[in-house]
Amino acid sequence: MSDVRLASPQGRWILLTTVLGSSMALLDSTVVNVALPRIGRDLDADLATLQWTVNAYMVTLAGLILLGGSLGDRYGRRKVFVIGVVWFAAASLLCGLAPNAGVLVAARALQGAGGALLTPGSLALIQASFHPDDRGRAVGLWSGFGGIGAAVGPFLGGWLVDGPGWRWVFLLNVPLALLCAPIAVRHVPESDARSGAGEGGALDGGRAPHGHFDVLGAALGALALALVTYALIEAPGGSPYVAPVAVAGVAAGVAFVVVERRRPDPMMPPDIFASRQFTAVNLVTLCVYAAFGGFFFLAAVHLQVVAGYSALGAGTALLPTTVLMLLLSARSGELAERIGPRLPLTVGPLLCAAGMLLMLRVGEDARYLTDVLPAVLVLGLGMVSLVAPLTATVLASVDVSRAGLASGINNAAARAAGLVAVAALPLVTGMGPEAYRSAPAFDHAFHRAMVVCAGVLVVGAGLAWATVRRPVPGCRKPECRRHGSVLAPPLEGGRRG
């Protein structure tokens, strides 16, 4: 029975544990982009390797996050969460000690698998442990502190890169894990789906009632993402393997759809897309988060390579987007409840597109207050306008019992869109393998990339205006009111008891 009170000592320990766990993943997703130029120089890596440094993590995280949530429901949420924390820390240690780029990329893939266990597990522990009267407030505190961690990430990452070195971006996770795991074992109660605590978990996909897991579906999904990503990243180099790998990636994607349609216990039930609203808002998600993924990958590098910022300066320059989301996302959600999600989901992407076009003014002699800050503020206001309504619309478009599954699919879609954008933008914009070593070459490609990202956002705005409708009365509303992550919408749990 979930009866821990938030004001009790155990309640505070549980909240601390979940915040530490989720902060590890949030910090890692926000600080690595800032470290990319230094990683490239130290490891003599080309642009493709830097793309893989980001995408190896995203492939395994996006491909396995649905399965990761269901493993906690079956084998114990605390147990799987602790395994995820230890796994993530071990992979982080390997990243920090990587002697070459190949080892770093492999370690990043392992990190993503660990993140797929701990990310949904942190929310599941809150929902399974706290008394129903305290659960909403606990989730609010968890999302707020997690957002603060996301805001600190670029600043901390830049300071580490400029100071002790980029390896400490990864090594920092080790002491966090050494603090988090023992607290979880000592103070967090165990729960699973059979105990009935926190019914629905953080994600209710991937697990059938009889307890079988859609391992084949998860493997095919991750494989399709990995193969398509490889083909896009390696295409500029003219590798003879690009075409067959691309075909294999598409084939794996088709096989994934076939398997999900035929299995009695699919990870991603096709019938959930019978809701036109759910399908529409996920298409908007793909457009929006593809643009975000491409922007945050390239902007941190552009500020260092072209504008001459230090890593700390680049990380701090992008900080207003996260701060605005922390301060205003809850109010944006309240406004969308009153006026409906259609207008915010249309205006938000258009504001983001305007912010990215304003980045065209950022060149070698760019000034922060007159060139960078206006673009970042407009982008941040656009993100504030759309993120909370997007999450609310996803939850409102399906039955309450499938809220966790819907949220997990939407989160995975956002991450997959981001990794495809990171893989495709250099190809689309003609960015060569050594472009990040040349300020003029990178500046030219960056300008083209911002135009592409803005165009994708305009498409997303058009989709939202044409397809999104006001949710029916009495539908499920988000528990995560405050949001600070810029690379994926917040995860939401299943039924609340």
UniProtKB/TrEMBL annotation:
<dbReference type="Pfam" id="PF07690">
    <property type="entry name" value="MFS_1"/>
</dbReference>
<feature type="transmembrane region" description="Helical">
    <location>
        <begin position="12"/>
        <end position="36"/>
    </location>
</feature>
<dbReference type="InterPro" id="IPR004638">
    <property type="entry name" value="EmrB-like"/>
</dbReference>
<feature type="transmembrane region" description="Helical">
    <location>
        <begin position="138"/>
        <end position="160"/>
    </location>
</feature>
<dbReference type="GO" id="GO:0005886">
    <property type="term" value="C:plasma membrane"/>
</dbReference>
<feature type="transmembrane region" description="Helical">
    <location>
        <begin position="48"/>
        <end position="68"/>
    </location>
</feature>
<keyword id="KW-1133">Transmembrane helix</keyword>
<feature type="transmembrane region" description="Helical">
    <location>
        <begin position="215"/>
        <end position="233"/>
    </location>
</feature>
<protein>
    <submittedName>
        <fullName>MFS transporter</fullName>
    </submittedName>
</protein>
<dbReference type="InterPro" id="IPR020846">
    <property type="entry name" value="MFS_dom"/>
</dbReference>
<keyword id="KW-0812">Transmembrane</keyword>
<feature type="transmembrane region" description="Helical">
    <location>
        <begin position="372"/>
        <end position="400"/>
    </location>
</feature>
<dbReference type="InterPro" id="IPR011701">
    <property type="entry name" value="MFS"/>
</dbReference>
<feature type="transmembrane region" description="Helical">
    <location>
        <begin position="449"/>
        <end position="468"/>
    </location>
</feature>
<keyword id="KW-0813">Transport</keyword>
<feature type="transmembrane region" description="Helical">
    <location>
        <begin position="342"/>
        <end position="360"/>
    </location>
</feature>
<feature type="transmembrane region" description="Helical">
    <location>
        <begin position="280"/>
        <end position="303"/>
    </location>
</feature>
<feature type="transmembrane region" description="Helical">
    <location>
        <begin position="80"/>
        <end position="99"/>
    </location>
</feature>
<feature type="transmembrane region" description="Helical">
    <location>
        <begin position="105"/>
        <end position="126"/>
    </location>
</feature>
<dbReference type="InterPro" id="IPR036259">
    <property type="entry name" value="MFS_trans_sf"/>
</dbReference>
<keyword id="KW-1003">Cell membrane</keyword>
<keyword id="KW-0472">Membrane</keyword>
<feature type="transmembrane region" description="Helical">
    <location>
        <begin position="309"/>
        <end position="330"/>
    </location>
</feature>
<feature type="transmembrane region" description="Helical">
    <location>
        <begin position="412"/>
        <end position="429"/>
    </location>
</feature>
<keyword id="KW-0046">Antibiotic resistance</keyword>
<dbReference type="GO" id="GO:0022857">
    <property type="term" value="F:transmembrane transporter activity"/>
</dbReference>
<feature type="transmembrane region" description="Helical">
    <location>
        <begin position="166"/>
        <end position="185"/>
    </location>
</feature>
<feature type="domain" description="Major facilitator superfamily (MFS) profile">
    <location>
        <begin position="14"/>
        <end position="472"/>
    </location>
</feature>
<dbReference type="GO" id="GO:0046677">
    <property type="term" value="P:response to antibiotic"/>
</dbReference>
<feature type="transmembrane region" description="Helical">
    <location>
        <begin position="239"/>
        <end position="259"/>
    </location>
</feature>
